[in-house]
What we know:
CATH topology: Rossmann fold
Radius of gyration: 14 Å
CATH superfamily: Response regulator
Largest sheet: 5 strands, parallel
Shape: globular
Number of strands: 5
Strand content: 15-25%
Order of helices and strands: EHEHEHEHEH
Number of helices: 5
Amino acid sequence: xxxxxxxxxxxxxxELFVRQAFQSANECRLEVVYDGQEAIDYLLGKxxxxxxVTHPLPHVILLDLKMPRVNxxxxxxxxxxxxPGDLRLTPVVVMSSSDHPRDVKLxxxxxxxxxxxxxxxxxxxxxxxxxxxxxxxxxxxxxxxSA
Length: 147
């Protein structure tokens, strides 16, 4: 079964890096939104995301923290307190350039399943994304969720 990842990140370079790292993986699909509000709209199937074939619910969310409109912390809070159905069960991997202990602790307290810092070196970032992809596509049972 194909694993759908939803990347929530306002940095186009990070999007490109994740796409390139995932490119060789036939078992995954990458959907991208650019802030937490767009991620909420995607999960709720609002407006341009209403076609669930074109925009399926993700099996895993890759979440940046520092974004406009609704940031990653606010998104996590919405997901775990206010989202409908089983959406709160969707695994969330925080990917942030911040490794500040306060950010790490807050992300976990809001329900993140894991926290990765974004390495500055492209090769390290690519290696981390490939490992993340393999882990979530081949080794982990993911919950079936519905909105």
